[in-house]
Amino acid sequence: MTRAMILAAGLGSRLRPLTEQIPKPLLDVAGRPLIAYPLLLVRSAGITEVLINLHYLGAQIRTALGDGSDYGVRITYSEEDPILDTGGAIKNAESFLRGDTFVILNADTIVDLDLPAMLAYHHGRGGIGTMLLRADPEVTRYGAIEVDADDRVRRFLGFPAAAAEPLTPLMYGGVWVFEPRLFDYLDAGVFSITKHSGPALLRSGEALYGYRYTGYWRVLDTPAGLVAGRHDMLSTRLRFLDAGWNSGNPRP
Fold it and tell me: In angstroms, what CA-CA distances link 117 with 7, 123, 212?
């Protein structure tokens, strides 16, 4: 059974002073806490077992979300002290995730994704992992994930130094789908799944694929991003909220 993990342990430093007393995942966005959007996204795909990692003001998140029943899911929490970064957090959740294909999402990103379609794409490709990728004019600023004509990832944040074929640079969009054998390549510690594990998987010969996405996407990790996201959610109808479940608070 597919499970999901939502990464919610970050400090929210770029949103201070808003996050001095409230953790970023609980900031209000159009009447919902920010983390409700990835929760409702996975629920719309039929995923009901969700793990959320906690560190900064984690008790508030646990109190606000409880067991997840208000969102139609069952939430398990993973406490981190010290904070483990994304890769370390995933490794720390191995006992929860290892049984089947699993999805990793960022708590601060709203994406109107057809998650079942991404999962089907992932299974059809047969790689160890599939990452949501999107075209963005600032791709070189944030680090490019470069894919070939078959959307297989061939260069990852500059590794390897050169490629033997023309590649398309795209930006990571905050969603991963992985197979459990990922854990064979992860050691306990503090590390980034994207910056460290991605290049390591390429070196190992494992296949990573990009799932190209062109729909609504917004990361709300800065004051400008938060303002824009709040404005968007007043006028943007998200397909996954119309997919049959929306936390008992129907959209008009």
Answer: 22, 10, 11
Average pLDDT (217-235) is 96
| pTM metric for this prediction | 0.91
Enumerate the β-bridge partners of residue 42.
none
Angle at 128 between CA 158 and CA 109, to 5 degrees: 70
- Interhelix angle 115-125/36-44, rounded to 10 degrees, is 60
CA 12 to chain centroid, in Å, comes to: 16
> Which of 223, 213, 212, 217 lies closest to 236, judged by CA?
217
Note whether 126 and 28 are within 8 A (CB). no
Q: Which amino acid is at 135?
A: A
Domain ranges of the chain: 3-11+20-242
Q: What mean pLDDT is predicted for residues 132-153?
A: 89
Architecture of domain 3-11+20-242: Alpha-Beta Complex (3.90)
Asked whether the beta carbons of 249 and 32 are under 8 A apart, the reply is yes
Closest to 84 (Cα-Cα) out of 184, 197, 1: 197
Query: Tokens 């996201």 correspond to what residue?
Result: 229
